[in-house]
Records
---
Amino acid sequence: MRTIIAGNWKMHKDRAEAQALIDALAEQVGNTERVEVIVAPPFPFLAMAVEHLRDAHIGVAAQNCHEALHGAFTGEVSAAMLKSVGVSACIVGHSERRQYYGETDAAVGGKIAALLHAGMLPIYCCGEMRAEREKGTHFEVVRAQMNEALGPISPADLAKVVVAYEPVWAIGTGLTATPQQAQEMHAFVRKELRMLAGDAAAAIPILYGGSMKPDNARELLACADVNGGLIGGAALDAGLFTELVRIAARAAAHTSIP
Ligand code: PEP
């Protein structure tokens, strides 16, 4: 199973700050055989990140894309455009885009199809709101998100997708799902993926996202169905992010022992 640590910079950093973070990551992350490292800077810094992170084997992702190949969609960016500047992955369906820009699962499904068409890696975010967890509807919510966005994708293509379970109540709040809550939902996501993708589900990485930091990552990454992390706040600090990559590498080494 692949292990992935992906950093979502959201709308942070100016050019000089982005360059400094990119340089620090290139220097500090090192060649990590066991972990795929990906960073998702804002659009203006993507090409710069691709150029400076290539030798460090750190992949670059966008934080969003449009579902169409091209056209009259002012302010939007297509998957093919991202691919043409060396971007290899894209976060889609992040809860902030669902919440502030009204992105539906159907629209997100279209973005996933566009990314697959461009030969890129979609990182599909799903997860329940706090009220939904309190009501006990979190499994239903995640099932519906997965079925709507991933249902139309063929099993062969689903094998090329990464899922990130991000409980919305844990994003940027300092609240983290307990390892038990994370494992329970990740096992559920794996089961749903099996319905959609058959045997390919066993090899689809499921990342955890929601206030993952060096002090809680060890336990989360030790869970059987947690195959890495999608990191927000801690991805803005090269030291914290590098530490998370190291923790993931140790967890991956541990789980690969037969
Ligand atoms: C995120 O935005 O995907 C995220 C997980 O953020 P944070 O780590 O800050 O909770």
Note: The pocket of phosphoenolpyruvate is lined by residues 8, 166, 171-172, 209-212, 230-233 (CB under 6 Å).
---
Amino acid sequence: MKLNKKPKHIVILTGAGISAESGIMTFRDSNGLWENHSVYEVASPDGFQRDPELVHRFYNLRRQQLLSGEVHPNPAHLALSKLQEKFNGIVTIITQNVDDLHERSGSRNVIHMHGELLKMRCIETGRSLTIKKDIHATTPCPCCLKEGNLRPHIVWFGERPMHMDKIDTELHSCDLFVAIGTSGHVYPAAMFVDTARERGVQTIEINLESTQISDSFDFHLVGNASVETEKFVEELLT
Ligand code: APR
């Protein structure tokens, strides 16, 4: 990997692949099915309207797994937090993941474009709240006190990702773009590399395998995110 110049502002986009080694299943590996339900049943506004209890059960289980003590940040998360701490410049992490493993590894100001598993949102007021316990279709909302007004603070299929203005600003001011563990199947995240590249920014992909957007990257670091991210961070810091 030979960079044109020393970067000053790095934008890092992470996907499910960075959390795979922490024991959280990636999306494409699950073949679009979860315990025989299509992901549209459990991750779309229509699905929630049709069967809110099923959707809550799905996210309750994912939240329980995240909080179980079995899931920890892996060396890839830790390497990125070290980079944020030691790099002489700006390091912005944008994640498509709804887990909190970047934060648990010490990273700051992580942009969660697809929401957060440990938050719920009041449908009436739009306010988001940190909630770690199980939620049911009849749980009263702590915000408006009405039953059935809480939904997962997650961006579902057909919904607009969060923080897009901030992300756009980052993509238009960075001088190095890195994507780690994302398949490039979901837009607009899959287009971020093109936005950066159109400005002449160098781009790096870290992934176990080549993806449908691999051609858009200048450099490919192929392997486990834990190993490749650590190596990449060491190289940048020396
Ligand atoms: N190290 C590096 N890459 C890995 C590893 C690993 N240990 N394990 C898996 N990968 C790669 C896979 O090769 C794949 O390219 O991670 C990628 C995971 O892809 P997806 O499962 O499609 O996850 P992601 O790209 O984050 O999905 C985007 O889709 O359903 C939506 O909202 C959901 O945020 C999610 C979005």
Note: The two ends are 14 Å apart (CA to CA).
